[in-house]
Amino acid sequence: MIFYRRIPTRRYSDYRLYRSILREVYRYRCAYCLRHEYFLGGEAGCCIDHHRPIGGLHARPELQNDYSNLYWCCWECNENKANTWPDPEDYIQGSRFIDPCETEDDHDKHLHVHADGTIIPLTNAGRYTCQILKLWRRHLVFYRAELYRRHVEVEEISSLLSEKKLRPELREPLEAHLRTLLIMLEPPVFDRPR
Ligand SMILES: [Zn+2]
C-alpha cells in the first residue's frame, strides 16, 4: 500500500498539530502494519511516528516538526520501532525501514503476504522492517488472514450478485452480507472525544 502525502495548507511548529491531516493521509491506518484504527480502539490506538528517529544513536532532532518525517502509526509498531535506525553501511545494503510514502516502497514489493496471513520478506528492506516491527506477530497473521478471507468472499458474492437470474430471496441476504463485509474492509472512523 502506498500513501500519497498531500502538502498541508499551513506549517506548524508543533508536530502534534498535524494529527488530523496525518490520519487522513494514512487512511486511518498504521503506515507499517496497515491495521485500521477501527481494530485498534479507534484514534487512540495510533500515534504520530517520527520515521527518522529524533532520539537515539542516529537521531535527527531537527526533523521533530518536519511534516515529511511524520507517519501515522499504531502504538505497537511505534514502540517496536522506537529509536531504531540502521547504520549507514547497513542502509547502503538495503537494510532499512520501508517508506510507504515512496512509490518504489509499496509494501507488496518488499513483503509477500500469504492467504494464511504469514508474511515473507522479499528484500533486505522487507526483512529489516519485518524484523524490527515484528510483523510476524501471531495476531497480525490472524488479522491478515481474516482480511484475505473477506476479500475473497467479497469477490465471490459480487460474482453471484452479477447473475441476473438470481432469485430475490437469495439476492437480499447476499447484498446485506456484502455490505457488512465492505464495512469491515473500509471501516468507519471515530474521533477521540475531546
Ligand atoms: Zn502498526
If you had to describe this structure to a student in words, what would you say it looks like?
With 194 residues, this protein is mainly alpha-helical. The protein is 39% helix and 8% strand. The protein contains 7 helices and 4 strands, in the order H-E-E-H-H-H-E-E-H-H-H. The radius of gyration is 19 Å and the shape is globular. The relative contact order is 0.13. The site of zinc ion has 8 residues, from strand 2 and helix 2.
Can you summarize this structure?
The chain is mostly helical.
Feature tags:
4 strands; 8% strand; binds zinc ion
Low-confidence stretches are: none
In what order do the strands lie side by side in the largest sheet?
1-2
Number of helices: 7
Rg over alpha carbons: 19 Å
Q: What's the main sheet like?
A: 2 strands, antiparallel
Q: How far apart, in Å, are the first and last alpha carbons?
A: 31 Å
Ligand set: zinc ion
Kindly report the average pLDDT value. Answer: 93
